[in-house]
Specification:
DNA polymerase, domain 1; two-stranded parallel sheet; alpha/beta; 2 domains; TIM Barrel; binds iron/sulfur cluster; ten-stranded mixed β-sheet; single chain
């Protein structure tokens, strides 16, 4: 079969249960077939219709003519020798490359997923955005990062963070569908409380997500304490100010009753002073929240350096003295370029040579 025919087929991994049932009725089958297909794709993680042995051969062939089950290919895997972090480069069916990371913690296995190929948000510390947004990932492509990592390592993923390449709230519909399917009891059944969505602060979509009332953790990449500072590192601030983001977070907390996490990457000499810590504490005063301090994982595209251990500790102490809970995120996979977008970019550059 020509690969273009395959690309043109409709991906059933991106269909939710109701859509699959409806589709079955539309093609003259019983609706319970939709339930079976959902189970086999999302629980048993089959990679082709021919593997769904509970369906007749006739139906499997019929499906194969018009539909597909999207499959990512492991293009490369990088294993950290420091902490067992594994980083994947996945090849998509159209030749694009995305990356995902698997991290082992005491409380389970966590995966960090991409939601877009590239990103248009332009954060200056991030390698994912250097070539802009190429395209949104489909729901099936976001899900398959989990399925392929589980299969490759023979593990069960317990926690998900949407913090890889791309801005999840810029791919809102596909991401929302992903959340519902990954949580589904006939799928992987991963609890919403074990899922974190990280955003640079697309304010209208924070309100939309809050109204969905899914008890996931919302994580805001804040990284600065006033708009002028933040504009320098996160251009989204030209569109939505910090106070608008904070207001939307308060609405989220009210609706979902979950604490919001604020990510604050410490960049040496840019945002890591005692004064910055004080301002951050004032900004978040009284909110049900938590601050994640991230020592910068340097990328070669920009000339930022990581804060030293002492300033990171001082920053944390300053926040805690002012009643704001904070943790310092352990650096994972430093030896395998685990910072967002670095590996994909390295690969794309090597292709140009
Ligand atoms: S940090 Fe996130 S939102 Fe910002 S450019 Fe990178 S991927 Fe996009």
């Amino acid at each position: 079969m020509d690969w273009r025919d395959f690309l043109n087929k409709i991906d059933l991994k991106s269909f939710n249960l109701e859509e699959l049932k409806k589709l079955m009725v539309e093609i003259g089958e019983k609706s319970f077939r939709g339930q079976q297909i959902f189970n086999w794709i999302h629980q048993k993680n089959v990679e082709s219709f021919q593997d769904i042995t509970v369906l007749s051969k006739e139906l499997r062939d019929k499906l194969e003519n018009k539909y597909k089950i999207t499959n990512l290919k492991i293009f490369k895997r990088f294993d950290s020798k420091i902490d067992n972090t594994k980083k994947y480069l996945f090849l998509l069916e159209d030749g694009n490359i995305i990356e995902s990371v698997m991290m082992e913690y005491k409380h389970g296995v966590s995966v960090c997923l991409s939601t877009q190929v590239g990103c248009k948000m332009g954060c200056t510390f991030c390698a994912s955005t250097k070539d802009g947004l190429i395209r949104n990932l489909t729901t099936g492509e976001i899900l398959d990062q989990v399925y392929k990592i589980q299969k490759d390592l023979n593990i069960k993923v317990s926690n998900i963070v949407l913090m890889g390449s791309g801005e999840p709230l810029d791919n809102y519909e596909n991401v929302l569908k992903f959340l519902r399917i990954i949580n589904h009891k006939h799928g992987q059944n991963i609890g919403y409380r074990h899922i974190t969505l990280s955003t640079c602060g697309i304010v209208p979509n924070i309100y939309k997500l809050a109204d969905e009332k899914l008890p996931i953790t919302l994580s805001i990449s804040l990284h600065a304490t006033n708009d002028n500072e933040r504009k320098k590192v996160m251009p989204i601030t030209y569109k939505y100010s910090i106070s608008e983001v904070i207001k939307a977070c308060k609405y989220y907390i009210e609706k979902v009753n979950r604490r919001v996490t604020f990510e604050y990457t410490l960049i040496k000499g840019v945002n890591d002073t005692k004064e910055n810590a004080k301002k951050l504490a004032n900004l978040l005063k009284g909110m049900l929240c938590h601050v994640n301090l991230i020592p910068l994982n340097p990328i070669k595209e920009v000339d930022y350096r990581s804060s030293n251990k002492k300033s990171v500790k001082n920053f944390k102490r300053e926040l805690e003295n002012r009643g704001i809970k904070a943790t310092i995120r352990r650096e994972m996979g430093r030896d395998i370029n685990a910072a967002c977008g670095q590996l994909r970019r390295k690969y794309m550059e090597s292709k140009k040579d």
